[in-house]
């Protein structure tokens, strides 16, 4: 058995968030307790409570951090000259590079997620950027759902993972072509 960390300061919020993200992604929010997170980190559950009031607060910080990361990546794309394809591939690339973030941000069905404003705020920024390419709001939604389905499928299936962004580019080209018909 590994020795427990004796001082809460040794354990950073970031370490806790990373462990919780991985556990929530693998097992689901309801199946993970603060004790499970502590066990994963080799510390007491009190050390987790030192940083977070409860599991909902920890989960909300994970959501916010994930959407902040996605928004930052998308902001980097749109701050330079860019195409619709760049935006769509940026979203897919985020899902492929950060699968545990993506799982928590877009696949979870937890009530805590439904009460958080970050998903809607992030989607609104995505919608605003895509609409600059003369795409109407309902079509932005269809594009987003298509991208989400693509990423979710590929995170769950190993069939195409070796093709990664190559197949993503083909898929995005398909979406753009069909949007313009």
Please describe the topology of this protein:
Layout (H helix, E strand, L loop, with lengths): L12 H15 L6 H8 L3 H7 L3 H24 L5 H14 L1 H9 L3 H4 L3 H14 L5 H20 L7 H16 L2
Helix pairs in contact: 1-2, 1-6, 2-3, 4-5, 4-6, 4-8, 5-6, 5-9, 5-10, 9-10
Structure description:
This protein is mainly α and 181 residues long. The protein folds into 2 domains: 8-52, Arc Repressor Mutant, subunit A (Orthogonal Bundle); 61-179, Tetracycline Repressor, domain 2. The protein has 10 helices and no strands. The protein has helices at residues 13-27, 34-41, 45-51, 55-78, 84-97, 99-107, 111-114, 118-131, 137-156, 164-179. Pfam families: TetR_N. Keywords: DNA-binding, Repressor, Transcription, Transcription regulation. Residues 10-70 form the HTH tetR-type domain.
Name the descriptors.
181 residues; mainly alpha; Arc Repressor Mutant, subunit A; Tetracycline Repressor, domain 2; 2 domains; 10 helices; elongated
- The structural domain count equals 2
CATH architecture of the largest domain: Orthogonal Bundle
Specify Rg, calculated over alpha carbons: 19 Å
How many DSSP-defined strands? 0
CA-based shape = elongated
Keywords: DNA-binding, Repressor, Transcription, Transcription regulation
Organism: Heyndrickxia shackletonii
Domain HTH tetR-type: 10-70
DNA-binding region: 33-52
């Amino acid at each position: 058995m590994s020795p427990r960390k004796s001082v809460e300061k040794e354990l950073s919020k970031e370490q806790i968030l990373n462990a919780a993200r991985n556990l929530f992604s693998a097992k689901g929010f309801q199946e993970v307790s603060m004790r499970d997170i502590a066990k994963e980190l080799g510390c007491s559950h009190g050390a987790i409570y030192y940083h977070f009031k409860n599991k909902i607060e920890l989960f909300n910080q994970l959501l916010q951090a994930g959407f902040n990361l996605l928004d930052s990546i998308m902001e980097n794309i749109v701050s330079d000259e860019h195409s619709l394809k760049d935006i769509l591939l940026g979203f897919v690339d985020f899902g492929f590079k950060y699968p545990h973030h993506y799982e928590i941000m877009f696949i979870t069905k937890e009530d805590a997620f439904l009460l958080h404003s970050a998903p809607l705020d992030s989607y609104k920024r995505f919608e605003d950027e895509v609409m600059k390419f003369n795409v109407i709001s309902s079509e932005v939604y269809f594009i987003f759902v298509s991208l989400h389905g693509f990423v979710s499928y590929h995170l769950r299936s190993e069939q195409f993972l070796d093709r990664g962004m190559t197949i993503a580019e083909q898929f995005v080209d398909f979406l753009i072509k069909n949007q313009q018909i």
